[in-house]
């Protein structure tokens, strides 16, 4: 049990407080003849993580500190952002930046111009900002009527007259699940007890893999239906909740699922999955809302992102369920069920405190 507690403390220290709010930067571009114009918007907090803008260490980044650091920011961006057309580089020029206040804080907005040798049919964009300080960072490239999601430093190619790729949102949904520790813990807490059931008066290891699979299918289906409802409702603007409330509630949902494993108050975990899954849908929707997609692209983005979420969580279930079934009669499983649920509850309680008071 001691190694488990050590791992839990490492997880608490290393995990982000806002697991559903990724670090995003927006690159908005337009092509006119052989010239590319636009602006790069990067969160001030992210630039501070990369460049230490808070010179006096008081926790507040002032306009003076930003102005002083502007040459360093420009050098940082210029070394990590390039454009090319037909294999030939476009000369990048950064103009004087300013601050814009967005929904999740202050952003440093840098106007830019890139001169290409000729009018580009397609633009090769290499974006390498912030990945070394935040593995969950995304560069959101808006060119014409399309949006590309850059999740690594590899170059992406955008057709000047292209449309948003459905596949990119599928990938983003998978990426979001696999990097969202709170969602993974919630899913794990729901499926952990599936191999240890109470068919009669007492709890015992399940005798039928088919029965276990049926229960897990009900849980995953209920969760999928619930978060799909609120994902759509929130993403299309019918209902929105403050991020602070949503993220705190998601952390509390993990704690509730973990506690239910310990006290076994509710045997129908599909009902728990549905009720608490409604909260997770609001968290997922923030990923799409932040993209600022035009209405005609939203349906495809919703479908692609939701499909990616389901594929990501399905992969987790397929990987874990056979292992849980094989060890269900062992002491290791009991330690995982009781100790793992206790640790997950403690981590979720810590997240709740962080997210509400941060």
Protein described:
The chain is α+β, with helices and mostly antiparallel strands and 358 residues long. The chain has 2 domains: 2-16 and 180-357; 24-164, no CATH class. The chain is 53% helix and 20% strand. The strands form 2 sheets. Strands 1, 2, 3, 4, 5, 6, 7, 8, 9 and 10 form a 10-stranded mixed sheet that branches. A two-stranded antiparallel sheet has the order 11-12. A hairpin with a 2-residue loop joins β3 and β4 (88-94). The longest helix is centred in the C-terminal third of the chain and has 32 residues, at 295-326.
Helix vs. strand class:
alpha+beta
From N to C, what is the helix and strand string?
HEEHHEEEEEEEEHHEEHHHHH
CA distance, first residue to last residue: 31 Å
Low-confidence stretches: 1-20
The number of helical runs is: 10
Tell me, rounded to a whole number, the average pLDDT.
84
Tell me the major beta sheet.
10 strands, mixed
Outline of the structure:
The chain is an alpha+beta fold and 358 residues long.
Task: Supply database-style keywords.
disordered N terminus, alpha+beta, ten-stranded mixed β-sheet, 358 residues
Topology:
Layout: H1 2-14, E1 24-32, E2 35-43, H2 44-51, H3 63-78, E3 81-85, E4 88-94, E5 98-102, E6 105-115, E7 122-127, E8 138-143, E9 146-150, E10 156-159, H4 166-178, H5 181-191, E11 196-197, E12 204-205, H6 209-235, H7 243-263, H8 269-289, H9 295-326, H10 331-357
Parallel strand pairs: 1-8
Antiparallel strand pairs: 1-2, 2-6, 3-4, 3-7, 4-6, 5-6, 7-10, 8-9, 11-12
Helix pairs in contact: 1-10, 4-9, 5-7, 5-9, 6-8, 6-9, 7-8, 7-10
């Amino acid at each position: 049990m001691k190694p488990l507690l050590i791992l839990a403390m490492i997880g608490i220290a290393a995990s982000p407080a806002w697991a559903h709010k990724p670090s995003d930067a927006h690159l908005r571009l337009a092509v006119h003849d052989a010239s590319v114009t636009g602006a790069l918007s990067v969160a001030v907090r992210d630039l501070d993580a990369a460049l230490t803008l808070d010179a006096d260490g008081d926790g507040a980044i002032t306009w003076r500190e930003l102005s002083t650091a502007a040459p360093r920011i420009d050098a940082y961006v210029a070394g990590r952002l390039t454009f090319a057309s037909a294999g030939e580089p476009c000369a990048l020029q950064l103009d004087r930046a300013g601050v814009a206040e967005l929904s999740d804080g202050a952003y440093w907005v840098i106007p830019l111009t890139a001169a290409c040798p000729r009018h580009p049919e397609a633009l090769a964009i290499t974006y390498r900002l912030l990945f070394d300080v935040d593995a969950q960072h995304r560069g959101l490239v808006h060119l014409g009527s399309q949006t590309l999601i850059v999740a690594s430093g590899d170059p992406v190619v955008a057709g000047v007259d292209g449309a948003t790729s459905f596949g990119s949102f599928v990938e983003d949904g998978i990426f979001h699940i696999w990097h969202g520790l709170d969602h993974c813990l919630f899913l794990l807490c729901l499926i952990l007890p599936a191999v240890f059931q109470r068919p009669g008066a007492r709890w015992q290891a399940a005798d039928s893999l088919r029965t276990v699979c049926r229960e897990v299918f009900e849980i995953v289906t209920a969760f999928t239906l619930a978060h799909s409802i609120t994902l759509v409702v929130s993403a299309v603007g019918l209902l929105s909740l403050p991020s602070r409330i949503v993220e705190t509630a998601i952390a509390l949902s993990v704690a509730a699922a973990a506690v239910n494993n310990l006290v076994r108050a509710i045997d129908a975990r599909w009902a728990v999955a549905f009720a608490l899954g409604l909260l997770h849908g609001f968290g997922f929707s923030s990923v799409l809302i932040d993209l600022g997609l035009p209405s005609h692209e939203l349906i495809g983005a919703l479908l692609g992102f939701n499909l990616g979420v389901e594929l990501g969580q399905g992969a987790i279930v397929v990987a874990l369920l056979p292992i849980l079934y094989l060890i269900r009669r062992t002491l290791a499983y009991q330690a995982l069920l009781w100790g793992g649920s206790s640790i997950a509850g403690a981590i979720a309680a810590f997240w709740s405190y962080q997210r509400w008071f941060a």
